[in-house]
Every structure is written in structure tokens, then in C-alpha cells.
Amino acid sequence: MNIDLTGRTALVTGATGQLGRVMAKTLASCGADVVIHYLNNEAKALEIQAEIQALGRKAVIVQADITNLASVMEMKQQIFKQFDRLDIIVANAVSQYTWTSILEQAPEDYLDQFNSCVMQSVLLTKAFVPQMIENQYGRIIGINTECSLQNFPNQSAYVTGKRGMDGLYRILAKEIGENQITVNQVAPGWMISEKYRGDDPEPSSDYEKNVPLKRRGEDQDIANTVAFLASDLANFITGAFVPVCGGNVMAAI
């Protein structure tokens, strides 16, 4: 049994990021054509584009502010100049900020995370879901985080944004499910990615000791889960929140 995305077109937001770049290349390796979204890192976007094209898949790069409606709609126009349809959305982009306590966290950081986590998906929905409804097919995959279930000190702005995103995705799954569009979330743990594969990786023993599998996962583990949820193998899974963290957090029933 293989994951076959032949004939599908996927958009990965934040595709130049540590996890996004692996997701984009993995979807392409499964047969999908890929839209590589970036905000600032055009050089990395071009590098990923070349790698995907080397796999024999079509790849285009688009620059957009995914928290701005006009920018998202312009991105939509660029995509549909290159492709007849968009089948898969991976909402992976997220803004970065300095974590601190609620008393010290700047109010604008909460707004920033809300825009990055929640409004990104609202705007992507408004831009692309009408066409998915016409096609009676679609896959929407949001990248959440294990932090949503941890609620540790200093995570408040990030967790607030991601938990808001969780509510949006659960409602969206119910609103558009009849159109054969699935809506799911993948929640990574602290994964090993290019950033942590150097000669002096960041110490992680305190983290790993609490993980049932006693190790950190790889960026590829996230990409594999995204590819599965994007495929027809997962065509009866919607509204799911899937932690990919070695059991570090476990969604309650």
C-alpha cells in the first residue's frame, strides 16, 4: 500500500521552515505538485523548488503574508495561473516571538499568534474552500503543537493561538464535511530537524526522559503523517487532532 498523490496539487504555507520544507518535498515524492509559500526566505524557496522539480513534479513559489486578506487573495490568483485546482492545504506557517510569562508577555504577541494561527486558516479557507466545494474534494491539514495539551509556563501566547486554531478546525470539519473535504490537525513534538542535526545539537535529555519512546522524533515523521492525511487512505478521517510526539502528550477521550 503506497501513498499516492498523483494528480493532486498541494499548498504548504511556511514551506521554507524547518518542518515545512520536508513536508513540501515529501508530498512531491508521493506524486503531488507543490506550491511553496514563503514570507521572507526566497533563497530557500528556490532551493526547495529545484529539489521538487528534480523529482519530476511541478513546483511554484509564492510570497504572501498569510495574515493579510489581500495578500492571500493575491496568492490565490498566482496559484490559479499555474494550476487548475488546489486539492491540499497544509497550514504550517507560524510567526516567531520571544516566550515569557503572561505578566511579561506583550499584548501584541497574543494578537500576532492569533493572526498567525487562527486567521491564517480563516483566510486560506475563504480563498480556497469554495473551489474545493465545487470539486467535492479537499484536504485541509493544520500544523498545531503538543504545547496545546501541555500548557506549560511561558507558552501562553503560542498556546492561545493554537488552541483557537483547534476550535476553528473542529468547526470547519463539521461545516464542509458533506463536500468530501477533510479537516485535520497534526501536533508535532520537539522534532529533530536541520536546525538540530549539527555537530553540537541542543541538549534534549530532560525532554526525552518524559517521552514514552525515550527519544525525539524526526521532521520526516511529521511529513509522513501529513502525507497520509492528504491521501485517499485517510478519506474517512476528519476532525482529528493527531499528536506526533512519541506519546509525550496524549489526547483525551
From TrEMBL:
GO biological process, one term: bile acid metabolic process
Alphabetized CDD domains for the sequence: SDR_c (cd05233)
Source organism, top-level taxon: Bacteria
One MF term in the entry's GO annotations: oxidoreductase activity
UniProt-listed InterPro entries: NAD(P)-bd_dom_sf, SDR_fam
Assigned keywords, A-Z: Oxidoreductase
PANTHER family linked to this entry: OXIDOREDUCTASE, SHORT-CHAIN DEHYDROGENASE/REDUCTASE FAMILY (AFU_ORTHOLOGUE AFUA_5G02870) (PTHR43639), SHORT-CHAIN DEHYDROGENASE_REDUCTASE FAMILY PROTEIN (PTHR43639:SF1)
Family: Belongs to the short-chain dehydrogenases/reductases (SDR) family.
Protein name: SDR family oxidoreductase
